[in-house]
Structures are given as structure tokens and as C-alpha cells.
Amino acid sequence: MIDTAEKSYSIEYLKKYRKLYPFIGRIGNPSRYTRFLCNAYSILQFNAFEELNRTACPTLIIGGETD
Question: I need a labelling partner for 43 at 20 to 30 A (CA). Which of 12, 37, 56, 61 fits?
């Protein structure tokens, strides 16, 4: 979570919230990875290609053979 924050937020935002990192680190690490693995496997099997034609607004879709 901290790595994502460091790459996603502005320097001003990070200056305010870096002091919370020790707390975030404790709550951000799950004791079990069962939910994560369930979600990861679901994502790997997800395919919305047949639904792309239903997109009604301008959209940039990026994908690849081995995403």
C-alpha cells in the first residue's frame, strides 16, 4: 500500500500522510492471503471482450495477449 501511495500521490499529499505509514503497514498486511488469491485467480479468468461494443463513452482500452 505504501509503495502504491508513493507512486500515486503528489509530494504535498505525501508530506502530510507519511507519518501514518507505520500504522498503514500494520493494517495493510493481511494475516492470510486467501482473499487475495481468490481475486487474483478471478481476474486471470475475466474476459469482457464480447462486451466492449456496449461501451457508450470515449474510452481508452489497453490490453495484451499476456496481461
Answer: 56
Residue 13 covered by a domain: yes
Residue bearing the bigger pLDDT, 31 or 53: 53
Rounded CA-CA distance 52/61 in Å is 9
Counted domains in the chain: 1
Residue 55 lies in a domain: no
Does the residue 41 lie in any domain? yes
